[in-house]
Each structure stands twice: as structure tokens, then as C-alpha cells.
Amino acid sequence: MTASSKRTKKQAILETALQLFVSQGFHGTSTATIAREAGVATGTLFHHFPSKEQLLEQLFLGVKQEFADAIQASVSSRGDLKQDAEQLWFAALTWAMANPLKQAFFQLYSMSPTVEQSVRDQAMHGILGFIAELIRQGQASGELAEYPIELMQDNCHGQYLAATRYFVDHPERWQQAHERSASFALFWNAMAVR
């Protein structure tokens, strides 16, 4: 078996698990169903992922990394914190609208006890650590309130989930500039010094 076919099987398992975890839930999805739908043997699934929990964790971290890479790639720092934050915000929302299945996965599992706290911490502090750095810069410059960094990160995450749920549920509102602008204003005003 070539490295390419191993990767293809692993990717097929991840893609199938994503679809099934969103449509049937983690507990409603068996490893046998994932393997069958992915077109691989159950043993192949366990070769790549020793448990269903590890499959979920790897999928969670992989989607978070894809998200982080996409939003960072679409932002060119202008040296103005508010403009940089606005670019990140809209890049994140655009990613969500372009990736509805992955966003649905975020909605279900970002705050779920099904995903271990250590894995959620790895995503927030490792993969999305650049957000904490922006918050620190904003606090140092006096633009952002002096709240605990982790609380601010969780608040940013919660606002992102709320805004994406709003726009996914009402896609016609995503097309309206004033609605998009309002979503950023709510986000920024929750953190900015007044």
C-alpha cells in the first residue's frame, strides 16, 4: 500500500466521520458505520484512529487548523488593531459560510464535553494562539479592556459561534452589508475600551 492510498483512506475516514458526526451525533455514530460509509475495513479505521474519541479529536484539531490557516492567509496586517480584527472577523465568517458542514461541526463540538478540555485548549491556545497575541497587543496599546486573556478568547469564540449561527440560519442577512457590519460592531464593542 502506498503512502498516497493510506492518506486517501485516512482522509476518507475523516470526511465520512465529519458528515456522520454532524448528521447523527457522536454517540449515534458507530465506528462500523464510519468504516462502511468510508469504504474501508473497520480494522483500517482502527489502524489510523485507535478509538472513536481519537478520531473525533483529530478531526476537531484538523478542522480548527484548516480554519486558522484560512483566516490568517486572508489577512494582511495593516498595523491597526481594529482593522486587523475586522479582517479576521470577516475572514472567519466567510470561511463559515463557505464551509457549512465544518461550521456545523464547530457548532456541535466546540464546547461539547465530548471533546476533551485538553484538546479544546490545544485548539484555542495552540492553533488559535495568534488571537491571544492580538488581544495582548490591544491591551498593551490601551484599545482593549484589561480582562483575563482566556476569558476574552472564550468570549470571542462564543461571539463567533453566535454570529455564524445567525448568518447560517438567515443566509439572506449575510448578503446585507449593514448586518455584517453590525456583527463586527458587536464583537469589537464587547472588548474595546470605552
UniProtKB/TrEMBL annotation:
Q: Which Pfam families match?
A: TetR_N (PF00440)
MF annotations from Gene Ontology = DNA binding
HTH tetR-type domain location: 7-67
Q: What is this protein called?
A: Transcriptional regulator, TetR family
Protein's UniProt keywords contain Aminoacyl-tRNA synthetase: no
Highest taxon listed in the record's lineage = Bacteria
Organism annotation? Shewanella loihica (strain ATCC BAA-1088 / PV-4)
Q: Does the keyword Electron transport apply?
A: no
- Enumerate the UniProt keywords alphabetically: DNA-binding, Transcription, Transcription regulation
Give the annotated DNA-binding region, as residue ranges: 30-49
